[in-house]
Automatic annotation (TrEMBL):
Coiled coil: none annotated. GO terms for cellular component: plasma membrane. InterPro entries: Na/Glc_symporter_sf, Na/solute_symporter, Sodium:Solute_Symporter. It is a multi-pass membrane protein. It comes from the Bacteria. The lineage of its organism: Bacteria, Pseudomonadati, Planctomycetota, Planctomycetia, Pirellulales. PROSITE patterns: NA_SOLUT_SYMP_3 (PS50283). The gene is panF_1. The chain crosses the membrane at residues 18-37, 58-77, 89-109, 137-155, 199-219, 231-251, 379-398, 419-444, 519-539, 545-566, 573-596, 608-627. It holds the Pfam family SSF. This is Sodium/pantothenate symporter. The keyword Transmembrane helix applies.
């Protein structure tokens, strides 16, 4: 380590305004009230149909917004902005295929999944799969994959919500006091120890809230809150776009400034004191300081100096490299009055590492492939951008969470309207997000070690600068809503799979509604609690985990479900082979990547994403397994396809064209 004394007092940005907190609390109260109202409706209807599918009567507005809110997860408002922030304009190519998700997903499977689920009475995807492919193997395999992969998918959602609450509340004394108590309570419990007690407190608050309202209200609570969250997300993004563009001086100026910026160096810092201190001393998160004559740093976590040792634990820190950027930061951030570091501190710098691609270069944030801290070829070579176009459009079709939504709308007219509206909705969300967080790198520099906080940090900065502090609460509610809408939907899917597809088939005879109800509540609560514990030590990049689990689910389910609803010859052996070959082909790409690169990074043959390779593997496995085994029983073919020829619409489709 190099030991230097700092020569410039640190500053932190403006704290969270009270008005922002009030707005955010009002939103949270509205979510809870919707859950209570949905519980009233739940008491009047069939528990299973209502709790897990909302009685299958969603109109086009509710269906559109619940589909959109579930698809726009914490990855969209946490991981995706973090990637835009870290890699620049090239993310426009990376996300372009997402606009086609509604057209491909709903157009490919929507009508048939909805009709079949109603005719067979299926409530979950594994249940429908089990009816189409008789036997325990396929249904059990589908249930296991959904439970495991969706539980992993929930981890970044919980992390994002915890980060948001920490960013919103870390300046308030009551929050700091509560975080201190949380640290004391969990100090002797290894599973509950986190790097930052403020994050742990935020994670606990979010988990309690979402577990309670999802357990209480079921699917209808999820849908009603999704409608609210979908509206908040749209207006939050558009409002932030206006604020950011006005403050950065327009998109042209932001791009010109970005073109002159260089990727930072990343490392760790420890604070220490020579004298004795009576109580723990806190160095605030996002503190700027200088070491030596010309080295500018920003902490990405709060540091707590122990009174006994006089030292803090190492915390993530970013070193700004471009000379013009340093001058701008000093002028904009260090010129005004600001709180200083406690007197008598010194700083120890761990070794700081440059980016693998883009270090010392200007213009890398405005051109492909974009800078990368890990890859020497950059973030997104143009050949890989095409692969991601396929990844989003095809991958969205293979998500069980999207499939279960398609089982809940009321009629074909709803499906058609939703396809059109969702395409425009996604365009109004994702393209503005690219613009916003390209500008965010200019307005809020130095968050490269913890970029998942950029949404909350930029919202607070922009709203405070515009002198509309109450708006910050609404802007921060947008990513919070995205995390919440995905968590509630996925917890409900996992719970329904455990109760409907594991417990009920194992129990002989009828199970009382009360037993099913209690088990459903218990499973929802248990899943949320387990995921919360895992999220205490989450990965750095939310989007990496989102992409991994999305790819695994699509590789496993897309081909078997598609062939299952369109091809009469497709059988149980083909479905098992398709699921297994798809998943393990996908997983092998990550295994090869780990051996090649020494980290959790996928191998991409011919620049194709592992999900594309997994879907191809699933297709090959499905064909081999199906054609090498007998066709399915006639009773199954008749149940799913009617008495007509293979591939034709089932009997009654014409008459049911409006009600599916």
């Amino acid at each position: 380590m190099n030991l230097d004394s700092f020569n410039l007092l640190a500053v932190t940005e403006a704290g969270t305004p009270i008005a922002a907190l009030v707005t955010f609390i009002l939103y949270s109260v509205a979510v809870v009230l919707l859950a209570v109202a949905s519980q009233v409706v739940l008491q009047k209807r069939s528990f299973l149909q209502e709790y897990f599918l909302g009685s299958r009567n969603l109109g086009w507005i509710a269906f559109t917004l619940t589909f959109a809110a579930t698809s726009a997860s914490a990855g969209s408002f946490g991981g995706f902005p973090a990637k835009v922030y870290n890699h620049g304009w090239v993310l426009g190519l990376w996300i372009a295929g997402y606009m086609a998700v509604p057209l491909v997903s709903l157009g490919l499977l929507g009508k048939r999944l909805n009709r079949i689920s109603k005719e067979t009475g299926s409530i979950t995807m594994p249940e429908m799969i089990g009816l189409r492919f008789p036997g325990h193997a396929v249904r059990g395999l589908a249930t296991g994959m959904i439970v495991v992969l969706m539980s992993i998918y929930l981890v970044p959602q919980f992390k994002m919500a915890g980060v948001i609450l920490q960013s919103l509340l870390h300046d308030f004394v009551f929050w700091q006091t509560a975080a201190g108590y949380m640290q004391q309570l969990t100090a002797d419990i290894p599973i509950l120890q986190a790097d930052d007690p403020g994050y742990l407190l935020g994670l606990f608050v979010f988990s309690s809230m979402v577990i309670v309202y999802t357990s209480l209200g079921g699917f209808r609570a999820v849908v009603w809150t999704d409608v609210l969250q979908g509206i908040v997300m749209l207006f939050g993004v558009l409002g932030l776009l206006v604020l950011v563009l006005s403050q950065v001086g327009g998109l042209t100026k932001a791009t010109q400034t970005l073109a002159k910026m260089q990727p930072p160096n990343l490392g760790m810092v420890e604070f220490s004191t020579d004298g004795s201190i009576d109580q723990p001393t806190r160095v605030a998160m996002d503190t700027w300081f200088e070491v030596g004559p010309d080295r500018l740093f920003r902490t990405n976590a709060a540091a707590y100096i122990d009174p006994e040792t006089g030292r803090s634990a190492p915390i993530k820190t970013v070193e700004i490299m471009g000379e013009e950027e340093k001058q701008r930061i000093r002028r904009d951030l260090l010129s005004g009055a600001a709180p200083a570091l406690p007197p008598g501190l010194t700083v120890e710098l761990d070794e700081f590492h440059p980016y693998a691609y883009g270090a010392g270069k200007e213009g890398v944030y405005t051109t492909a492939p974009g800078p990368s801290a890990r890859s020497e070829v950059g973030f997104l070579p143009l050949s890989l951008a095409f692969s991601f176009f396929l990844f989003w459009s095809i991958g969205g079709s293979g998500q069980p969470s999207n499939m279960i939504r398609q089982m809940s709308f009321d009629r074909v007219r709803t499906l058609k309207r939703s396809m059109i509206f969702l395409t425009f909705y996604f365009g109004a969300i994702y393209f503005p997000l690219v613009v916003i967080f390209v500008c965010g790198r200019v307005l809020v520099p130095g968050l490269d070690q913890d970029p998942d906080r950029i949404m909350a940090a930029l919202s607070l900065t922009a709203a405070t600068a515009a002198d509309v502090p109450w708006l910050a609460g609404l802007l921060i509610a947008a990513p919070f809503a995205a995390a919440m809408s995905t968590v509630d939907s996925f917890m409900l899917m996992i719970s329904s799979s455990l109760v409907r597809d594991i417990y009920q088939p194992m129990v002989k005879g009828d199970v009382s509604d009360r037993t099913v109800k209690m088990l459903s509540y218990g499973c929802t609560f248990s899943v949320g609690t387990i995921v919360m514990l895992v999220a205490i030590s989450p990965p750095k990049f939310l989007q990496d985990l989102v992409v991994f689990t999305s790819g695994g689910l699509s590789s496993s389910f897309l081909v078997p479900v598609f062939l299952g609803v369109y091809w009469t010859r497709y059988n149980s052996i083909g479905a098992v082979c398709g699921m297994l070959t798809g998943f393990f082909t996908f997983l092998s790409m990550y295994g090869i990547g780990y051996l090649m690169y020494g980290s959790l990074r996928a191998y991409e043959p011919l620049s194709f994403d592992p999900m594309i390779v997994g879907v191809l593997g699933s297709g090959i496995g499905s064909l081999i397994g199906c054609l090498s085994s007998p066709p399915p029983p006639r009773s199954i073919v008749h149940m799913f396809f009617g008495a007509k020829s293979p591939g034709s619409p089932a009997k009654g489709d014409a008459a049911a064209s409006e009600t599916v």
